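Entry 12.
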Amino acid sequence: MDIQKYSVGLQDFKEIITGGYVYVDKTRYVHKLLTTSKYYFLSRPKRFGKSLLVSTLYHLFKGENLPNAMLTCLALV
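Predicted 3D structure (tokens):
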């Protein structure tokens, strides 16, 4: 049985994926978020994934060469 690592305190998408941490993909909601309006205010409690979502978007839109492991875990790709 493999022990899964949880990304407590990590907020960088690339570090989480390449480090083998558990990642809960929420990108299927990103398309709706990006196409339905201009501005959003992300009002969620502390430690609820706001910075990780922004980091995920950063790495997707930056256009850098991402390892296949990073791309295959995402619903948008």
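Annotation: Residues 56 and 62 are 10 Å apart (CA to CA). The longest helix spans residues 50-62.
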